[in-house]
Design a protein that fits this description.
With 154 residues, the protein is an alpha+beta fold. The chain folds into 2 domains: 41 residues, Orthogonal Bundle (Arc Repressor Mutant, subunit A); 82 residues, Lrp/AsnC effector binding domain/regulation of amino acid metabolism (RAM) domain (Alpha-Beta Plaits, 2-Layer Sandwich). It is built from 5 helices and 4 strands, in the order αααβαββαβ. The chain starts with 6 loop residues before the first helix and ends in a 13-residue tail after the last strand.
């Protein structure tokens, strides 16, 4: 849903993307309002879904997740039941940190993190290839992150 917003709302979104833990007082100073209207606007942005939530951005290396692959998935068939079943199954695999349905071939792209190549190979062999409806998996290994966790243009 597109939420109508003015330049002040966009400033609030930009400031919150840069630092989600700042106080309302700090945010108000950045956007040029007093605390009360800033707080009201922030709550409105949360209520309408423009702000979907708050989270910490964790360094995968801190968790020992030093291996990343992009996995392109081609489905055997593309009926509704097969696709919904695949999507539900993928949501239950913790190592899949992002999944996107694509137009054309392949059908899906998964971003998968593991501790190393051996752990990834086991995940692909034992889990990903066993998801119902999968015809083919094609993996590309991530060498380096050039742009990561970038804020959306506000």
């Amino acid at each position: 849903m597109i939420v109508p917003m003015d330049s002040v709302d966009r400033k609030i979104l930009a400031a919150m993307q840069a630092e989600g833990r700042q106080s309302i007082t700090e945010l108000a100073a950045k956007v040029g309002l007093t605390v009360s209207p800033t707080h009201r606007r922030l709550r409105d942005l949360e209520r309408t879904g423009a702000i979907r939530g708050y989270r910490a951005v964790i360094d995968p290396v801190a968790l020992g997740l030093t291996f990343e692959a992009l996995v392109f998935v081609t489905m055997k068939q593309e009926d509704r039941e097969t696709l919904l079943g695949f999507e539900a199954a993928v949501q239950e695999i913790p190592n899949v940190v992002q999944a996107q349905r694509l137009f054309g071939d392949p059908d899906y792209m998964l971003r998968v993190v593991t501790t190393d190549l051996a752990a990834y190979a086991q995940l692909e062999d034992d889990v990903l290839s066993a998801v119902p409806g999968v015809l083919r998996l094609n993996s590309t290994l991530v060498m380096k992150h050039v742009v990561s966790d970038r804020a959306l243009p506000a």
